[in-house]
Amino acid sequence: MVSDTFSRFKSEVSTVLADALAKLGVDSPVVLDIAPDGMGDLAFPCFPLAKQMRKAPNVIAQELASSIMAGDLIEKVEAKGGYVNFHVGYDGLAQSVIEDALARKDRYGAGEPKKDKILLEHTSANPTGPLHVGRARNPIIGDTLARVMRMAGYDVSTEFYVNDVGRQVVVMTWGVKHLKLDDEPDRDADHYRYVLYYQKANKCAEEDPAILKQMDEMLYKLEHGDEETVAIARENCERVLQEIKKSMKRLNIEYDGITWESKFVQDGSVDRVIEALKRSEFSVEVDGAYHLELESFGISGRETKWVFTRSDGTSLYTTRDLAYHLDKFSRTDIPINVLGEDQKLGMQELAAALKIMGVDRKPDVVFYSFVSLPEGRMSTRKGRVVYIDDLIEEATERAYEEVKRRRPDISEEKMRGIARVVGVGSLRYNIIRIQAEKQIVFKWEDALNFEGASAPFVQYAHARACSIMNKAVELSGKFDARHLITDHEKALVKIISRFPSIIEDCADNRRAHPLAAYAQELAAQFNQFYRYIPVLKAEGEVREARLALVEASRWTIRNTLMCLGIDAPEEM
RNA sequence: GGGCGCGUGGCCUAGUCCGGAUAUGGCACUUGCCUCCUAAGCAAGUGGUCAAGGGUUCGAAUCCCUUCGCGCCCGCCA
């Protein structure tokens, strides 16, 4: 049984409170608050009990407080107004938390292994061009969630679903085959070139119905397994995908698996889905095209039809997605999708279709709102777009200037290394720190902020901890936490003790932004400690205890950054 | 027209699920701090009708209703 110290304190408090309430003959759930500074650590509000017990809250609080004894981790219980405040036994907490961190190192904060297997799909961008910042939220949320859930103890596999069938691939492929480019691509890379073909081909299709017809024929061939068409479409997608993966790798994002949409067309599973849906009582045929009537499933709006085949019999994206989800269900316990908010209706429809097919499962979905520019929504067509590659380069360049200014003493190679880690970290941090359902307006000044609530702020605290540890060569390995008596030390210990429950909370609620906030809080507390509490100049057992605290801080900061997909440099 | 989400100091943001003690933190601005383990840091200060109105409650940023503003969706696109 691996359980962190703060959780043990919390469950101890819950237990004694429940006992005390039972003794008073009160039936009430135990809900604990984090107490404000100076009021202890956990608080139990007695106000809800007032009516039931017909007593004033402060009287109840006093009765409860006097009936509860200090315990293993509970040092003091006191009534304050309508609250019962619980103070953690600090010495015990400190010793045990620091020992835990020092023993577990990069596993400090990890939860018990869970039996559920998670398949987390993210990014899944159309392979028709480079990713822009509007899209960046998806891989960053997805990858961070995957890291957090692994830390929490789940067996997580990430997956990129490649849409290599469907209209947009045909348009791109037709363009590559038939068109000549007028403009040079922004970069000498396949995806920057292919997106130009895609854009030009779209224009051609709009202007010339004959071309549109050619594309329709190509789409039909693609879906019916015409070897040449399948091969060339796949080849084009593969090239663009490789480039997208390179961009993502620069952000510390890699995928455990790639699933090609075409697989479900070729192995017949899409056909089976279509046949099953056609048999349902909700299925209706119009001009050879089939749809489901979903009004009775809570779908509302101008249109409640959900079309699953075109009149030529070919499938649609959502139909294939249905086959993909059935495949996912066979491979995992918990499927999680990271999707833009524009997919909300689609997921509702997917859930309804699954129900109609008699499948009693559906994916968990993490939705996020889009990143826009101050001028409005990002649009490749209007040239109103910031590419992720450009953002990475700009951030890295900006970081390089900072390093060069601050650290003229280190080698060029080291400067470049730190700049990369700081630049990339800043980007990830600035995306993940904001709760997913909130819209983000992209501003360069925010994206390139290296102070306050930013990755470099946290990385800097880590580098400082490393710097101390590197200079403290002679370590006994033994320490007595009772020497950590200042407020700065106590506050730092308490923040470190909260890390495991932060991980658990993020994993349970499938959200990552609290971890970013925690990183900032932890680093800020460490910086205060660093400023006011001398470590290397301290002597004897005090020095040993402080070094142990620095080492515990170092691991906690590092593990926090790792979960955020941000590297923790040892110097900067 | 219908559905979903968001609205917190000049700007960004936590807290909202599960109502409780002076509403969290950052940016910007003002002012201090490097003979002292890296100043990408620390400290202090200015700044708030928690979109608006109503309701429930001993108590509302949090729950309910209405309104307004913004985003997204309602394709034989993906």
CATH architecture of the largest domain: Orthogonal Bundle
- The radius of gyration computed from the alpha-carbon positions, rounded to a whole number of angstroms, is 28 Å
Largest sheet: 5 strands, parallel
Number of helices: 20
What's the CATH H-level superfamily name of the largest domain?
Answer: Isoleucyl-tRNA Synthetase, Domain 1
Into which percentage range does the β-strand content fall?
A: 5-15%
Strand order of the largest sheet: 7-6-5-11-12
Helix content: 40-55%
- Beta strands, count: 14
Overall spatial form: globular
CATH fold naming of the largest domain? Isoleucyl-tRNA Synthetase, Domain 1
Compact summary:
54% of the residues lie in helices and 12% in strands.
Structure overview:
With about 575 residues, the protein is α/β, with parallel strands linked by helices. It has four domains: about 5-90, Gyrase A, domain 2; about 165-260, no CATH class; about 260-370, HUPs (Rossmann fold, 3-Layer(aba) Sandwich); about 390-565, Isoleucyl-tRNA Synthetase, Domain 1, CATH 1.10.730.10. Helix content is about 55%, strand content about 10%. The chain contains 20 helices and 14 strands. Strands 7-6-5-11-12 form a five-stranded parallel sheet, sandwiched between helices. Strands 1-2-4-3 form a four-stranded antiparallel sheet. Strands 8-9-10 form a three-stranded antiparallel sheet. α11 (about 270-280) packs across α12. The radius of gyration is 28 Å and the shape is globular. The mean pLDDT is about 95. The chain binds one RNA strand of 78 nucleotides through α6, β9, β10, α12 and α13.
